[in-house]
Amino acid sequence: MNLLLFAILLIDAIVSENRQLAEVESADGRVRAVWKVSPAEPQLSDTILLTLEIETDSNLQVTMPVFGSTLGELEIVHKTEQTSKITPDRETKQLVLQVIPQRNGITPIWQTTIHYNDQREELREKSYSLTLPTTQLEIKSAVTPESASLDNISATPDIFEFRSINLFWIILIVIFIALILLFFLFRLFRKPATVSLESGLTPQEIALQRLALLIESRLHETDVKNFFIELTGIVRWYIEQETNLRAPELTTEEFLREITQQWEHRSALPPELRDRLRLFLESADMVKFARFQPSLDEIMLGTRRAEEFIFLFAPQITAQETQS
Questions:
Q1: What dihedral do alpha carbons 99, 101, 106, 107 form, nearest 10°?
Q2: DSSP strand pairing (48-57 vs 90-101)
């Protein structure tokens, strides 16, 4: 029944008015990504459809972003993917999210990174990415200032009119408010979920899922130090899984030195990756040990650096093992 309702909403969104929130295109014009919202002017009472539309050349393989159960302050209740041809050489992928707003006002949608590969033989090993910038979605309330005005309230309310209020609705409202409070308390105090190694996923896929769950937990809003401890822990865990290095207690300098020494029988860690890893770990150390308070943009930059390193590290390992 829920699937049928979502299909009806999806068809309605396709034919109804929608609004573009953000758009970005690659330098060569081969990839274009757009966030769209339907209805165009969503209200707090609406069921909203957010569509990530990615138009690419047919010889590109796109990895759709992974979202958890929330997107910013929007609760994701359903997801669906679909692909369609525009021309013989171009196709469109759509990730449609059915979301429920938690409050009215401005809701941010964090920047979204799309990774893709060229399927032509000579370019297959290279990985590319395209990032949609942070955008905002305005959720309006159906209650207008005029309807909330006190001007028309009588100075002598009818006592019989007051008594006519149904007790059932009072109880229902109290339960509804209690559920909302429990929901926000759960989101405030829950810890990031973990992913089992027995899930059949690769270390890269597990690391990316753990990263998505960490962002979803919104830990950076309540404890930014522990957020960066978890973030660097994910990257270190991923490197340990790929290199068989076991050094959880090492400092940043010692960790980088151990990785380089581990690879001496093959070749040293490529300078570009080593510099990326050093920049990421040293920036995180500023928050963990120097009590540096990063801005939201700096937090998202650290998250993006972790994600980019995880995507770039695996192809380098494959190349090094092939050479050895």
A1: -50
A2: antiparallel
